[in-house]
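[Q] Does anyone have a clean structure-token version of this?
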Amino acid sequence: MMNNKIPFYAERSFGEKFNVVFSFLKQNWRYMLRYILYGVLPLSLLAALSVDNLMSSTMNAVGDGPVNTGLQLFGNYIFLSVVCVLVGLWVGSVVFACMQLYNERANGLEDVTFADLKPYAKRNAGRIFKCGLAGIPVAFAVIAILVGCAMVDVTFYIVAFIVVLALCTPLLMVLPTYIFEDISVWKAYARGLRLGWKTWAGIFALGFVLTFISNALSFVFAIPWYVVFLIKAVFGYSDPYNPNIINIIVDLLQYVFGVIMWIGQFTLSTIFLVSISYLYSHAAEKLDDMSVAKGIDDFEGMADSNPDDDDLFKQSEPLV
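[A] Here you go.
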């Protein structure tokens, strides 16, 4: 049994919530990274290819004409969006599965195999997909409100953006609620919003800090790609009609650095997923004493799995 295992359901201060996220990652990053890269690596290859094509289409827009360029841009955007959705499903399902196994097993993620992870990841992927589908109307409503406000006045748009951001912050609790509790998606939305409203300040504060850290780390991974992109733009190493050895080398470097950039960005989304999980566990414990309720459920499950004394007497046969 792990001596420093992190309890899931617990009330935590802001500093404790910040520390518990990185303590969990520090304990389990080797196990999580291995399974995350199984899906992220091939998808990063596709994402880098899509972005390179997207940038090439943009830089060569004059030569290809507006119609062809528009079709190429649209196709690459759609392809990149599909890749990002697949990455979200993979990374989310694996991270949540690792957290579920960590909470259930006495030794955490030690000696965990993909066979142990698979049923949890499969369930989580389905739940993430259903939660996303249910959230599409909300996303369209938010976009419509912001576009409408932008058409009226810039100041009105800024105010509306702040209000929408404040109202959408509690929605971060919906996905972990749906993942860690056995309830329907609509009940998860209702319960997640309730938990989010009651702990709004903590969610916003921790989210702001971790978003800043994640963006800073993502930028570090993206620097080599941006450097090569600027070199191509400034020195004209992007002409597909005049290929030479320098163009080929620069294109290859941009693709390799693009793969590294996407691997870094996709992997860093783990910080977000772990943080909303512990924000949920804090809110659920604070408002509903989930650790007590779970302990009672586990005790009842143990009792149901063992025959009581009356059953033992009923099962025994009389001696002749």
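[Q] Thanks! Anything notable?
[A] Residues 21-296 form one domain.
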